[in-house]
Amino acid sequence: MHTAFPTRVYTEEEVKRANDLINNGYRHHLRVEGSQHFQQKVKRATELIKAAGYWNFFTAYIRTIKETDGLTMLHNASAAIWANSYAVANPVDAASIFIQKAARMQKYLQLQHYYSGEAEKRSVQKRIDFLETLRSKSQEKEVVEECERLLRFWRESSLVY
């Protein structure tokens, strides 16, 4: 068995190898690529992921967070999140976005349906679960208040589904 995570995760063999490694405990050493300001914002978001107890889950599926001028998205083939400066401006929201993208990557590697309205609902639910956990574990008043604000937003938005 190869012990190195595949450079790209695209073919059936690459996906299987990546999933096998993760199932056997492999975790990425997260790389953040971008401006110093971007890296500082991502660092704060990842601190919140750790505080909520989601770091092991997150680093199983995401290798890199890369600054982009375009849309924030999961780039499955490289196990990366491409994020713009707006996506990382609010650290609580950024952390929840990152968890949502990791949940999508998990489904991709497990060869489960990872795109569609139903898949979107599942990944949003993972984001909500994260916010609820962070709210209950955080000792920072501002973080708790922001979790509550975002949870209200997601509850109101869920009426659309």
Explained architecture:
The protein is of the alpha/beta class and 161 residues long. It has one domain. It contains six helices and four strands. It has helices at 12-23, 36-51, 55-61, 91-109, 117-137, 141-157, and strands at 31-33, 64-67, 73-75, 80-83. The radius of gyration is 16 Å and the shape is globular.
Short description:
The chain is built from six helices and four strands; from the N terminus they run αβααβββααα.
- Largest pleated sheet: 4 strands, mixed
Which percent range describes the beta-strand content?
A: 5-15%
Poorly predicted parts:
none
Mean pLDDT: 93
Identify the notable features of this structure and list them briefly.
single chain, 161 residues, alpha/beta, 4-stranded mixed beta sheet, 57% helix
Q: How is this fold's topology laid out?
A:
Blueprint: H1 12-23, E1 31-33, H2 36-51, H3 55-61, E2 64-67, E3 73-75, E4 80-83, H4 91-109, H5 117-137, H6 141-157
Parallel strand pairs: 1-2, 2-4
Antiparallel strand pairs: 3-4
